[in-house]
Structures are given as C-alpha cells and as structure tokens.
From TrEMBL:
InterPro entries: Galactose-bd-like_sf, M28_fam, M28_SGAP-like, P_dom, Peptidase_M28. Gene3D superfamilies: Galactose-binding domain-like (2.60.120.260), Zn peptidases (3.40.630.10). Pfam families: P_proprotein, Peptidase_M28. Residues 421-545, 546-658 form the P/Homo B domain. This is M28 family peptidase. Residues 1-22 form the signal peptide.
C-alpha cells in the first residue's frame, strides 16, 4: 500500500483473527444467495505463490520494486500461470505517469463460460513492493490471493453470468501509477462496462483485522455478507482510503470495494477485544520494511478468509446459475512436450459442484495432424478421473498446440485445455512454424523445446525470426531461456517498417541447451497488428559443463546452531561418481564442536566429520565420498552443526566435484 502523506488522528483498522471461527461455505439460507456456490480458495496454494514471490525477491536483491528485475520476474511468474490456465492475458506497458523503467501491468480476462461482455466485475492488486523489502504482505498477499482465485475459476470453468477480469498493477508504491494509467486508457464505453472493482492490498497483516473498502456500497455489502456468515465483524477501511488502487477506479466513477487487514495504524483496545491481537501495536509491524517476508509476516487466518471473501464476491456477481446437476473438470498437468513417435499422459479429473452425480463422456478437439488422444476410461461418473494418453506419430509436425478436453454429462458440459509441444528431431536446432497472432497491446509467446543437445548452448547461438507486422517499431522481441533468463532481440526498433526477417546472434553459453525456449513478442502500441510466422533456434551445443561447483559466500556458524550452504548442479547427466570430492574450508576456533555433513538433493546425509579435532582451529580438508547412488543434478548442501558453546566461526567456502 502506498504511504499516505497525512493520517487521520483516529483510525479504526483490523487486527489478526485470533478467534478460531469456522470458515465453512456460506449456506443457502444466509442473507445473500450466490448464483453458484463460491469455492473454498486453497490457502496452501495461495501460500505457495507467496513463497515464489519471496524466492524471486531473494534472488533479486531483496526487493520487487516496479523498476527492478524482481518485479519483472514477478510479472513473468503471474503471466505464465495465467496463460497456462487459459486466460487471455496482456502485459500492459505503462506509457505515461509511471516511474521511469517501471514494469507492466498484467490484465487477464477469463474467456471461458460465456457471460455478458458488457457487464464486467474486476479483482485487482498491486504486484510491486517498496525498495526496502520483498513486500510479502504489501502486496504479495493481495497479488497471490487474486492469482489463486483466477486459477480456481479456470479449473472449475463454471458457466458465467457476467465477465470476470483480473488486474495486477505496477508502480503502486510510487503513487498508484499503474492502475491510474490503466483506467486512463479505457474509453467511456469500456469504463461503463466495469460494474464493480474489488481491491486487495495487504490482506494478511499479522496483527491485522477485517476492513472493507466502502463498506456501505452495494458491492461492499456483498463482501461484508461473507464475513457476517462466518461470524467475523468488519469495519470501514479508514486507513486505506485513497491510498490504494481502488482510488483510481473510484475517481473514474466505477463502484469499488475490497479487503484489507491494516498497515501502520495502531490497533485499538476495542479492536483487540473483537479480533484478538495486540492493542497499541500497528496492524503490520513490518509495513514497508525489510522484514515484510514470507512466512514470518503473514497471518494464515486473515489471508484464508480474505481469499474466500473475494471468491464469494466474484461468484456472486459473475458466475451463472449452475445446472441442477453440475460438475467441474480439470487436467493435471496442463502442458507437456513429446517427441514424434512418443506419448505422454495427463489426468482428467471431475468433481461434483451441484446436485447429483452424472455420467460424463470424455472427448478431445484441437489435436494437430498426427496426434491422437485416448481416454481410459472414456466415461466416468462425477468425482471420477481418467488418464488421457496423448500420442504423437512419427509424422507429427513440430510446434505448440492447444488441445481441448471436454466432458459431456447428462446435465452439463465442461472443458479444460492442455498445451502440447511436439518436439523436432533430437538436436541443437528446432523450428516452430505455427502462426501466433499478435494483437495490439498484447504479449504472446511461441515455444521450442530442445532435447538431445548435450551441455550448454553456444556463444554464437542464433535466433532466426520471421514476424509479419505492419509497424515493427511497436514490437519488443525477446528470447526466454528455460531458466527464465531474458535476452532482448529487438526493442521497438525499425519504426514503420513492415515485418521482421532477421537472424540474431546471442551468447547463450551460460544456458543449458535442453529445455523449453520461448520467443516472446510484445506489441507495445495500438494501430497495427500481425503474427509470428516462424522462428528457428540454433544453439550450437558446446562441451558439457564440469560437474562441480563452488560456494564462496561466507555463512556464520553460531553456537549450538545448524547452518547450510548450497551448491546447485545442473547440466550434468547420470549419477555422481564413487570418488566424488567435497573440499571444505571452515574458519572456527574449536573444530571439535563441529558436525559436518553433505546433504544430497534427495535428502540423504553423508557424514564428513563428527566432532573430531578437539581444540584445533579451522577445517581445510578434502573429503572423498562414494555418491554413486545419487543423481548429480540438483541442490546439494554442506550442513554444519555447532554442537557446543563458547566458540564460533563461519563457512568460508566449499567445492563439490561429482
């Protein structure tokens, strides 16, 4: 949440939900009857998204500020999840009003299930953090909540009464800039279609409470009805008024509400009595600080209830009335790659969502020439599952395809999508010739999967690109490596010239060759459209990387504490050797206190030293270990336990050779 210049003297905000109030689904007898039963949003899945955002921040200087690589990685994480789930997703560049270098907004529309396109209900949250920290409560909590709701909507794929849209905003912490830009780009007609916007900013404060934005509005009363149904009292979000992205929509005349759990304001005694927690302390003690981390700065209870309240609102306004007997259908996994002549499987699962069970016949559409899908069994009863086997013949053309898996019941029909990549022949060069349309102000991707190419890519790797477009100065063209690294090929160059037919040379020597590579094309302006015609990736594979690694980062070893130092091995084939070595350098004033072990990626522990050496200083030793039962690739840890008091030290460095 953006910092406010002035705060009212008296603020009434939220406290953590200490009382254990049941969170059962709202019953049909409660005050607001939703068209279709709102789902219980998975707390575990929401927290998994938070863990990913924490990891992204940790790997990018401890922040996800809108102008940093941490924000870019956050955008790509959310974008990839939404695309895989079947959303129509746009990365919207903030062309004016944002901090220089700020990343894009993400706008995701759910195309499934129909619904009135002129009646839009929107959930939004800002994705950026302040510079000082990773922003896990502010606002990873809101971003992760609406991401999981979007993925749940896609998995259930219910009939839609109205249109559902989701937004993740850039540059909120610098002044609500991303959401203000989005609203400013809407025509009068498009603004009028948005009948309600729900904002989620800081929804898991550890000393928080239950605040609703504009609680007396019609849509605010709907959110309140959910909390009423589980016996939780709510208050108006006084502290957050005008300080988050709902203000951008409200100023444009769009009805708004949303949920918050409080920021830096102080919890009153009355609120502590009502919600639990600590009176006289701020709702979020880590507000805009480095300690806003996962999992320490998250209240599971407050977060769980916020997700269910948000789903309750969306299902109430956007989801249509289910069939008298209805079900959901999903596929897991939702994507995969196969070489010609091979096959893979996905599990198609059904679940009862209304009424009674029914017989469901499974079919597929959208399979390319040379690809077939078979189901075992081909008919299931609601609650059952089937294994879909996808087989590519030797003549199947390389490319990426969307296959629709459909369940037709006696009372309802639902579908799920599966993204299939057919590999080219094994080797270091592949082509994807499947056309991919590039609409205005949209980001699209075309995939190539490389297999059978040993080692890393070459320093002289090439990317041959053929894009048909009437104004290539609109386009940002990038190559995305399997590990997510971005290599920019063309950044809005070429002005009004038509088409890109260029071969780019890129140093990819730090990248493992095998894996799925993406050509990402962003149309960053209006007025001209086109399509990716084809592209070819030639990685000119090089010598396989050495199966060794060194971690030279110091790790303090306090008294009576266990610490780890990690090395990740990638690009090595097979198992480790029977004479693998672990070279250890530990600075310590009494090595007899130390237990030193190597922990393999599968968790197996290999003892190197066990409190030997007495009062000697330091360990500078190379250990030979039989690791022939262990797969080389993965994360290995040097684990050091100080098992006594009075002497301390640190891991200086260690080298693993497999």
């Amino acid at each position: 949440m953006r910092a406010c210049l002035t705060l009212a003297a008296a603020l009434t905000l939220v406290a953590p939900a200490i009382p254990a109030v049941a969170t059962a689904p709202v019953s049909a007898t409660q005050s607001i009857a939703v068209a279709a039963a709102a789902p219980d949003i998975s707390l575990a899945n929401t927290k998994a998204h938070l863990q990913q955002l924490q990891t992204i921040a940790t790997n990018n200087g401890g922040t996800r500020r809108s102008t940093t690589a941490g924000y870019t990685a956050s955008v790509n994480y959310v974008y990839d999840k939404l695309v895989a789930a079947g959303f129509s997703v746009v990365k919207q560049t903030c062309a004016s009003g944002c901090t220089s270098g700020a990343g894009p907004n993400i706008i995701a529309d759910w195309p499934g299930g129909g619904g009135d396109a002129n009646t839009v209900y929107m959930l939004g949250a800002h994705l950026d953090s302040v510079t000082a920290g990773p922003g896990i409560n502010d606002n990873g909590s809101g971003s992760s909540t609406i991401l999981e709701i979007a993925l749940t909507l896609a998995a259930q794929n219910p009939a839609m009464l109205n249109h559902a849209r989701f937004g993740w905003w850039t540059d909120e912490e610098q002044g609500l800039n991303g959401s203000e830009y989005y609203v400013s780009t809407l025509s009068t007609t498009e603004r009028a279609k948005i009948k309600g916007y729900f904002n989620f900013d800081m929804v898991a404060s550890t000393n928080g409470g239950y605040f609703i934005n504009r609680i007396t509005s019609a849509i605010g009363q709907t959110v309140k009805a959910y909390y009423d149904s589980i016996g939780v009292q709510t208050e108006e979000n006084t502290e957050g008024a005008g300080r988050s992205d709902d203000a951008s929509f409200n100023s444009a005349g769009i009805q708004t509400s949303g949920v918050a759990a409080g920021a830096s304001a102080i919890k009153t005694s009355a609120q502590a009595t009502k919600w639990g927690g600590t009176a006289g302390a701020s709702y979020d003690p880590c507000y805009h600080k480095a300690c806003d981390t996962y999992p320490s700065n998250i209240s599971d209870t407050v977060l769980d209830r916020a997700g269910d309240a948000a789903a309750y609102a969306l299902w109430n306004y956007a989801v249509g009335t289910p069939a008298s007997n209805d079900f959901s259908l999903s596929a897991s996994p939702t994507s995969g790659s196969v070489s010609p002549g091979g096959s893979l499987t996905t599990t198609v699962s059904t679940a009862l969502t209304n009424g009674s069970a029914q017989s469901i016949s499974l079919t597929s559409t959208g399979t390319p020439s040379g690809v077939t899908v078979s189901f075992s069994p081909s008919t299931v009863t609601t609650g059952g599952s089937s294994t879909a086997t996808i087989t590519a013949s030797a003549s199947a053309a390389p490319g990426t395809y969307t296959i629709t898996l459909t369940g037709t019941g006696t009372s309802a029909t639902h579908s799920a999508t599966y993204t299939l990549t057919v590999n080219g022949a094994p080797g270091c060069s592949q082509t994807n010739a499947t056309d991919v349309t590039i609409p205005d102000n949209t980001t699209v991707e075309s995939l190539i999967t490389i297999s059978g190419c040993a080692g890393n890519a070459g320093a002289g790797s090439t990317v041959e690109v053929h894009i048909v477009h009437t104004y290539i100065g609109d386009l940002v063209v990038s190559l995305i490596a399997p590990d997510g690294s971005v290599y920019t090929l063309s950044n809005r160059a070429g002005g009004s010239t038509d088409n890109i037919d260029t071969t780019y040379t890129v140093n990819l020597s730090s990248e493992v060759a095998n894996g799925t590579w993406r050509l990402r094309v962003q149309d960053a302006a209006s007025g001209d459209t086109g399509y990716v015609n084809s592209w070819t990736l030639n990685l000119a594979g090089s010598t396989p990387p050495a199966c060794s690694g060194t971690n030279g980062t110091d790790v303090t070893v306090p008294d009576n504490t266990t610490v780890n130092s990690a090395i990740t091995i990638a690009g090595c084939t097979g198992n480790a050797g029977s004479t693998s070595t672990v070279e250890v350098h530990i600075v310590h004033t009494y090595v007899g206190d130390l237990v030193v072990s190597l922990v393999a990626p599968d968790g197996s522990v290999y003892a190197l030293r066990n409190r030997t050496g007495g009062s000697a200083d330091n360990i500078d030793q190379t250990f030979t270990v039989n690791l022939s039962t262990e797969v080389r690739n993965g994360t290995w840890n040097l684990r050091v336990q100080d098992a006594a008091s009075a002497d301390t030290g640190y891991i200086n460095s260690w080298t693993l050779t497999l």
